[in-house]
Design goal:
InterPro entries: DUF2254_membrane (IPR018723)
Oligomer: single chain
Pfam families: DUF2254
Order of helices and strands: HHHHHHEEHHEEEHEEEHEHHEEEHHH
Protein name: DUF2254 domain-containing protein
Number of helices: 15
Keywords: Membrane, Transmembrane, Transmembrane helix
Strand content: 5-15%
Length: about 400
C-alpha cells in the first residue's frame, strides 16, 4: 500500500509542472469557473430573492425574450471576435520574437500567465453567454428571462473591453528586447539563488568507488531528480549514488547517468530510474544554466548578419555579467544529505569558469570585430575584475585589450 502511495505521489509531482505550465490550464480553469457562476446566477435569477429584487427595481426586468437573446448573442459574438483578434496579434508578435531573437524564448512568451488569464476570461465570457442563452424561455406557460444574469453579462463584457485595451499595451511591451532579457535574468537569478547558496566552495568529493551503473530509461534532457524519493531509496538500500551529468545535459537512452557504490536489486534500480526528470524541453526552473544559454543565444542571434543589432547583444551581455556577479561568490552543493546529515547523493554542477567559457566566448567569437561589442565587453570585464579577480577572466581581458588596440 505504501509503495502504491509513493508511486501516486511521484506521478503527481512529475506531472504537476507540465499540467500547470500548459497553455490550456488557466483558460480551462477560468472557463469552468464562469460556467459555475452562470449556473449560480441563473438559479438566483429565478429564486424568490431574485424575483423580489426585480419587483423592487423594475429597471432590472427584461420583458421581451427576443431582446434578451439579442443582447446575449451580440456579447457572445463580440467577445469571440475580440478573442480571435487578440490572439492573432499574439501570434504575429511571437513570430516577430522568433525571427529577431531566439526560438527558445517562445516557451516563456506562450506560457505567459497573464495571456492565459485573458484568454480564460474571454472564453469564460463566451461560455457564460451561451449557457445564459439556453435559459431564456418564451413558451406557453410564460416568459422566463434571467434579467439579472443578462445585466451581469453586460458588465462582464464592458470589463472585457478594458482588459482588451490593457492587453494591447501589455503584448506590445512584452516583446521588447529589454523586457524579455530582464525576464530571463530575473527567473534565472531566482532559480540560481535556490541552487547556489553556499558562501564557500564545497570541498572536493572524497574518493568513493561507484562501480555499478544505472542507465537512462529514455532519451531526453536531464533536468534533475526527485530528491526526497532518491534519498529514501538510498537509505532503504544503504547505498550512495553519483549523478554523472549536470542538469541541462542531453542524454541518450541506455547511457550510464548514475553510478552506485554497491550492487542493488532490480526493483531499486528501476525506482532510481523513475526519479530522474527527463524531458524534451528545457526549463530555467529545472536548470538555471539554461537561462545563461538563452541570453547567449539572444546575443548571437542579434549579431547575425541578417539582424546586425549589437545593442541587443550588449543588453544580453550585461544580463550575463549580472548573473556572474552572483555566481562567482555563491556555490552549489556537490552532495545532498539526508535528515541525519549523511551524504547520500553526489551531484555535478558546472563551475564558474565553465559557465563563463560556454556563454561569453561564443558571443565574442561572433562580435569581436564589432566596436560596440569590443567596448561593452572591455567595460564589463574591467568592472567585474575590479570586484572579483579571476585568473581565467584576466587572461581573456588581456586578449581582448590587445585586439581592441
Amino acid at each position: 500500500m505504501n509503495n502504491l502511495i509513493g508511486i501516486i505521489k511521484f506521478w503527481i509531482k512529475h506531472r504537476y509542472n507540465r499540467i500547470v505550465n500548459s497553455i490550456a490550464f488557466y483558460p480551462a480553469f477560468i472557463a469552468f469557473a464562469f460556467l459555475i457562476a452562470s449556473i449560480l446566477f441563473i438559479r438566483f435569477d429565478f429564486s424568490e430573492t431574485g424575483q423580489t429584487l426585480k419587483e423592487e427595481f423594475e429597471w432590472l426586468n427584461l420583458r421581451d425574450a427576443s431582446t434578451a437573446r439579442n443582447i446575449i448573442a451580440v456579447v457572445a459574438g463580440g467577445i469571440l471576435s475580440l478573442t480571435v483578434f487578440s490572439f492573432s496579434m499574439v501570434m504575429i508578435v511571437l513570430n516577430q520574437a522568433a525571427s529577431q531573437m531566439s526560438n527558445r524564448v517562445l516557451n516563456k512568451l506562450i506560457g505567459n500567465r497573464f495571456q492565459q488569464i485573458v484568454l480564460g476570461i474571454y472564453i469564460g465570457t463566451i461560455v457564460f453567454a451561451l449557457f445564459l442563452l439556453t435559459a431564456v424561455r418564451d413558451i406557453n406557460s410564460g416568459i422566463f428571462i434571467p434579467a439579472i444574469s443578462t445585466y451581469i453579462l453586460i458588465i462582464i463584457a464592458i470589463i472585457d473591453i478594458f482588459i482588451f485595451i490593457y492587453f494591447l499595451h501589455y503584448i506590445t511591451q512584452s516583446v521588447k528586447y529589454e523586457i524579455i532579457i530582464k525576464r530571463i535574468l530575473t527567473v534565472t537569478l531566482h532559480n540560481m539563488k535556490g541552487s547556489c547558496y553556499l558562501k564557500k566552495e564545497p570541498e572536493a568529493i572524497t574518493q568513493i568507488d561507484f562501480n555499478y551503473e544505472i542507465k537512462t530509461p529514455k532519451t531526453g534532457v536531464y533536468e534533475g531528480f526527485d530528491k526526497d524519493t532518491l534519498i529514501d531509496i538510498c537509505n532503504k538500500n544503504d547505498c550512495k549514488v553519483s549523478i554523472l551529468y549536470s542538469p541541462g545535459t542531453f542524454v541518450f537512452k541506455e547511457l550510464a547517468v548514475i553510478k552506485v557504490n554497491k550492487k542493488i536489486s532490480d526493483e531499486a534500480l528501476k525506482k532510481i530510474q523513475k526519479t530522474l526528470y527527463l524531458s524534451q524541453d528545457e526549463t530555467i526552473v529545472g536548470n538555471f544554466f539554461y537561462g545563461f544559454r538563452q541570453l547567449t543565444e539572444i546575443a548571437i542571434k542579434a549579431l547575425s548578419p541578417g539582424i546586425n543589432d549589437p545593442g541587443t547583444a550588449s543588453l544580453a551581455l550585461r544580463a550575463l555579467f549580472e548573473l556572474f556577479i552572483y555566481r562567482v561568490v555563491y556555490f552549489p552543493e556537490n552532495t545532498i544529505k539526508d535528515k541525519n546529515d549523511k551524504a547520500c547523493i553526489y551531484v555535478k554542477q558546472p563551475d564558474f569558469e565553465t559557465i563563463f567559457n560556454m556563454t561569453v566566448l561564443p558571443i565574442w567569437d561572433y562580435g569581436k570585430n564589432d566596436r560596440i561589442i569590443q567596448n561593452e565587453m572591455h567595460g564589463l570585464l574591467e568592472q567585474f575584475l575590479s570586484l572579483h579577480p579571476n585568473t581565467e577572466m584576466e587572461f581573456f581581458f588581456k586578449e581582448i585589450s590587445k585586439g581592441s588596440n
